[in-house]
């Protein structure tokens, strides 16, 4: 509701502005054609999962300490990858060792169509654990959160 006597410094967004955004004149729908091709590289982001430090835990109010999750997510590395390298569990395990090269728990984050204040929205798609063995680093694919939504995921086709 507008305040009586207030002046508008910027144009107000009305429903009619949104209604005609993707329409030509005479009400015909203007389809959206993505600029990205099917085999272009996909942007992924590895986030590490680490335990929260005691100092960080003490910063929370006492009544919230029992509720909070005692883990911290840190952005590790962002990589452009061909979609074929994300097609199954074994490929993702190899990619994790190749790109990260350290032990720990990691989330594979990808971007979806949703937009946040920075124009992108990372979503959690898989989790991977890398451990040190006598043979070297070994990765284990732990959980698939939403890879089945993507066209390159092989298990979707079965």
Give the tally of β-strands.
5
Radius of gyration: 22 Å
Instruction: Give unreliable regions as ranges.
Output: none
Mean pLDDT: 84
Query: β content, as a range?
Result: 25-35%
Q: Biggest sheet, strands in spatial order? A: 2-1-3-4-5
The amount of helix comes to 10-25%
Which class do the helix and strand fractions yield?
A: alpha+beta
Contiguous helical run count? 3
Distance between the termini: 54 Å
Order of helices and strands: HEHEHEEE
Largest sheet: 5 strands, antiparallel
Number of domains: 1
What's the shape? flat
Task: Please give a structural write-up.
By secondary structure, the chain is α+β, with helices and mostly antiparallel strands. It has one domain (42-156). Helix content is 14%, strand content 32%. It has three helices and five strands. The protein is flat.
């Amino acid at each position: 509701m507008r305040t009586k006597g207030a002046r508008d410094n910027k144009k107000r967004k009305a429903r009619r502005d949104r209604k005609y955004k993707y329409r030509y004149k005479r009400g015909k729908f203007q389809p959206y054609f993505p600029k990205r091709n099917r085999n272009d590289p996909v942007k992924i982001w590895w986030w590490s999962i680490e335990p929260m430090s005691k100092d960080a835990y003490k910063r929370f109010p006492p009544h919230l300490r029992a509720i909070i999750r005692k883990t911290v997510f840190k952005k590790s590395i962002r990589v452009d990858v061909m979609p074929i390298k994300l097609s199954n569990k074994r490929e993702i395990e190899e990619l994790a060792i190749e790109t990260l090269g350290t032990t720990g728990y990691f989330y594979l984050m990808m971007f979806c169509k949703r937009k946040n204040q920075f124009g992108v929205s990372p979503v959690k798609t898989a989790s991977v654990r890398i451990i040190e063995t006598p043979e070297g680093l070994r990765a284990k694919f732990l959980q698939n959160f939403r890879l089945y939504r993507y066209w390159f995921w092989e298990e979707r086709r079965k």
